[in-house]
Specification:
Elements: E1 5-11, E2 16-19, E3 25-35, E4 38-47, H1 48-57, E5 63-77, E6 80-96, H2 100-132
Parallel strand pairs: 4-6
Antiparallel strand pairs: 1-3, 1-5, 2-3, 3-4, 5-6
């Protein structure tokens, strides 16, 4: 059987991190995953080093790609049975942080400048190759 969940969405709030006496660390966060006009809120759970990375790298509003395994939770609360489906995170990658949106123009300008430098270098290399073909 395969238990694999993959999604991409925006972090709803900064991750909640809890440290246990045993030394284990757990982080919980929620992603808003959109499909057309609908948004599904998916809860994630991370452990140990990944939980520490969540605390360091994830912030509200960040766009994140996540892979994990679905986990079914059930418990009793005041005599009524509660259930919840969550994803235990195996991997995450931040794709765009909210403050990057403001800096997109700066990044594009840097890319244009680096392309210009690459063109100059290529032109210089071509000139040197042409000089090497001279028979003397």
């Amino acid at each position: 059987m395969v238990n694999k969940y993959i999604c991409m969405g925006y972090v709803a709030a900064d991750p909640a991190v809890k440290k246990f006496q045993s030394g284990k660390v757990k982080a919980n966060f929620t992603l808003g995953v959109s499909y057309g006009k609908d948004t599904t809120w998916v809860d994630f759970e991370c452990w140990d080093k990944m939980a520490e990375n969540c605390q360091s790298f994830l912030n509200k509003g960040d766009l994140v790609f996540v892979e994990g395994k679905l986990k079914y939770l059930s418990w009793s609360d005041s005599g009524s049975k509660k259930t919840k489906l969550i994803c235990v995170c195996d991997f995450f990658k931040t794709l765009k942080q909210k403050n990057e949106k403001q800096n997109e123009n700066k990044v594009e300008k840097r890319l244009e400048q680096s392309v210009s430098v690459d063109n100059i270098i290529k032109s210089d290399i071509q000139t040197q190759e042409d000089l090497e073909d001279i028979p003397w």
